[in-house]
Amino acid sequence: MDKQHGPATAYDMESNNVHLRRSNTEPGVKQAQVHADIVDLIATDAFLGRLGGAQRFALSASSTTTPSTPADARRDPPWSTILSLSDFRNKRIWKLALIEGIGTGVQVFLSGVLGVAILPTATETSIGAVFPVALAAIVQIFLVSLFIYAAGPVSGAHFNPLITLGTFAARLTSLPRMVLYVSHQCAGAVVGAYLVRAALGIGPSSLKIVPGCYIDASLVAPAEAFAFESVMCFIQLFLAFGLGLDPRNETAFGPALAPILIGLSSAISLFITAFARPGYLGTSLNPARCLGLMAAGERFTYHWVHWVGPIMGSTVNGLLYWLVPPYTKGVD
């Protein structure tokens, strides 16, 4: 823990602050104290559901808390704490939810512009949809990982109701934070999608066929779409939890590599599912993205699948984490 801040600093889990180890024999004590005071002001908030391996900032189960401490700041919280509505009064969480909304909107804008640009190439080469899907998967690696790097220390960098619902089901995100994050993510996604139309000067017809958010009802049965989306959402959560949320992996590859691995797992899911089933242009894995792009495209065919799938995947993944708790040693 200490090595993250250097040999002269330490992280205080009880107060969620970084402070300096001071010694009268060390030179420049005053300058170092000023630096330590600045670090105190920018220390990362304690939050269990933070992507990027930052659970080192979570409080231990025995830590003392204050009324302003979020319900999802302390490890292994009871459901009564997670379901408490008190965090709705926490202004800090509202601000973080705004960051989630802005980040989701920007991601949807970028992915929407990319989709409009590369979709026509599916008919321009002999390999068909393989080329645009491969290109989108490569971009996905950097898009997801860079956004996690940018906002992981701030809001936790969910930018996706699938991640937020998954962390809630695993007791890593409180009910108020989940509601605020998801609502802001959806609002941001809708704004981002309409900005695609405004920026490119296109109509809703240009966004009716969007990879990951398009299902041909004449070729795909509802049960097939539900099964496909649910299984892929669980797989994505399984990878995201293991790579970026489980503190046991901190010693395996560290927090710095986790965002890249999460981006890679998302890209693999996109590439594998994009042309595995005729009429199904890949699984969504992000219901807010589909909500925004389908709203801008004025087409909501099978959109319920993009929500029921994540809820099902989150429930199964939450049950898995209940059977194998991430903070308990010696689980039989």
TrEMBL record:
The entry lists its GO molecular-function terms as:
channel activity
Superkingdom to which the source organism belongs:
Eukaryota
Query: Which subcellular locations apply to this protein?
Result: Membrane
Q: Does the keyword Transport apply?
A: yes
- Transmembrane portions of the chain: 96-118, 130-151, 178-196, 225-245, 257-276, 304-324
The entry's keywords:
Membrane, Transmembrane, Transmembrane helix, Transport
Pfam family of this protein, just one? MIP
Q: Does the keyword Flavoprotein apply?
A: no
GO CC annotation: what is one? membrane
Q: How does it sit in the bilayer?
A: Multi-pass membrane protein
Q: Which InterPro entries match?
A: Aquaporin-like, MIP
Q: Which family does it belong to?
A: Belongs to the MIP/aquaporin (TC 1.A.8) family.
Name of the molecule in the record: Aquaporin-like protein
